[in-house]
Amino acid sequence: MRKIVSILMAAAVLVALILVSGCTGTGGEQQQLTTLRIGYQPSTHQIAEMTAMEKGWWQEDLAPYGVTTATDTEFPTGAPEMQAMIADQIDIAYVGAAPAIVAMANSGLDAKIVAAVQTQGSDLVLRPEVAYTSPADLKGMKIATFPPGTIQDTLFRDWLLANNLTPDEDVTIVAMGPGDAMTAIAADQVDGVFLPHPAPAIIASNGNGRSVVASGEIQPNHACCVLVVSGKLIREQPELVEQIVKTHIRATEYNLANEDEAAVIYANKTGQDINVVKQSFEEWDGTWVSDPNLITDSVVSYTEIQHDLGYVNKPLTRDEIFDLSFYEKATA
């Protein structure tokens, strides 16, 4: 009996020590994030993420909040990136607003948009020999763009409807990632593509097509990429999220002030030709931004368009999509 009591007392002491040290995983300290996992796409839209990574700012700025490592994972488009976020494989995402909305509405993605990343910046590109004077000329053509629910797919379908063309009837739309779409137009498998930069500049530099419509002509000042943060991080480490937004603002402002260096960072990250990247900067109609207040109306309009297209069951509200408080605190 004495032996059993001794064992129980020893076990109690061990449990107490474990609780004090926080090794059970239930203590507040244990739940702090030590590795920030970032999702991004290989587009010039999202150079802020690349600059912060290249400069070491993610790790440097977030170290006071317990983050010791920052990793990033490349995704071809927003849909697989949002699936990774739903599966808790990434903590924050540089991604198009449209796929984030679809994931929130249809798959219960627990996350919010906390900052803008960029506006406009995609082009409709047709093969050199394909004539174009107006949207009506697209009737009968095959156009490749990002998968359903993405920014490019949503904008393009809405624009076709506004010009009395029925998607998938008057114009065949083929879902592809940027690499496959550029290969398809080079091989004459499609008449054109609607893609984010730098893809239009790459296609033009290879003599495989020319831009005929910029996305800003389709919807002026439309929202594009945004910074999405998981709900878990927002609830459990709001101070860390505020610093994430500050670091994003820091990188965005640095890129705007140092465009040539931003081009080098992008070229080194993706392997693209530096001259093509600079050409893309000159030709695109996009702008790097961080203030989410600039894009709220545009993003909310996407939910209405996506509802009309049958992508979401009901439009989401601004409060369901955004948490603007972190940007407000970061810029106070």
Largest sheet: 5 strands, mixed
- Overall pLDDT level: 91
* Unreliable runs: 1-30
Can you tell me the number of structural domains?
A: 2
Q: What do we call the CATH topology of the largest domain?
A: D-Maltodextrin-Binding Protein, domain 2
> Which CATH class of the largest domain is shown?
Alpha Beta
The helix-and-strand class reads alpha/beta
Q: How much helix, percentage-wise, in residues?
A: 40-55%
Shape: globular
Total strands = 12
Widest β-sheet, arrangement of strands: 2-1-3-11-4
Q: Based on the structure given, which CATH architecture of the largest domain is correct?
A: 3-Layer(aba) Sandwich
* Rg, Å, rounded: 23 Å
Count of helical segments?
16
Protein name: Sulfonate ABC transporter substrate-binding protein
Pfam families: NMT1_2
Organism: Methanoculleus taiwanensis
Keywords: Cell inner membrane, Cell membrane, Membrane, Transport
Annotate the secondary structure layout.
Blueprint: H1 2-21, E1 35-40, H2 47-54, H3 57-62, E2 69-74, H4 78-86, E3 92-96, H5 97-107, E4 111-116, E5 118-119, E6 122-126, E7 142-145, H6 151-162, E8 172-175, H7 178-186, E9 192-196, H8 199-205, E10 210-214, H9 215-218, E11 225-230, H10 231-236, H11 238-257, H12 259-270, H13 274-283, E12 287-288, H14 296-309, H15 318-321, H16 325-330
